Amino acid sequence: MDGTAAKERALRLVQKHAVNPVVMFAHDLGFPPPGDALLETIGRRTGLPRRTPVCDGLAGEVFWLVAQRGHRSDWVRNIRANPRVRVKVRTASGIRWRTGTARVLEDDDPRERQRLIGEGGVARRLCAGASAAAATDPLTVRVDLDAV
Fold first, then answer.
1. 3-state secondary structure of 132
2. C-alpha closest to that of 20 among 148, 132, 133, 130
3. pLDDT tens for each residue of the chain, 148 residues long
4. Whether 31 contacts 45, CB under 8 Å
5. Residue 33 near residue 25 (C-beta atoms within 8 A)
6. Can you tell me the distance from the alpha carbon of 130 to that of 147, in angstroms, rounded to the nearest whole number?
7. Range(s) of the domain holding residue 50
8. What is the CATH classification number for the domain harbouring 50?
């Protein structure tokens, strides 16, 4: 196993079994960590909702995401099968779900996108920085949110 594969495997295990359960529990209690959001896709094989903690990339009526593992990320594969998604975000009026249509942006610079996401405050900067450090094959995804 090369260094990148070993790093990816170790980080994925830490995220899956340590970080993501804590973030999901906080969301379930109604106290999402600042700088974080939830992405809900539809499983490409099961057809069931799949929720994934992500950095809060809300910018007006667009939600920006950077997949750390690129096309190998399960949620990216789910989006390719069904681009309709929901994001649970913190807004001025509280924490709420927003629906939208996602698309993978092959030509966007994911490192620059993470930097831009981080400009949304200290919590978003910490989330985006941790995500960038863990990224092995970053890929940008844009979600055009439906009108409210």
1. helix
2. 130
3. 566 777 777 777 777 777 778 888 888 888 888 999 999 999 999 999 999 999 999 999 999 999 999 999 999 999 999 999 999 998 888 899 999 999 999 999 999 999 999 999 999 999 999 888 888 899 999 999 999 8
4. no
5. no
6. 31
7. 3-145
8. 2.30.110.10
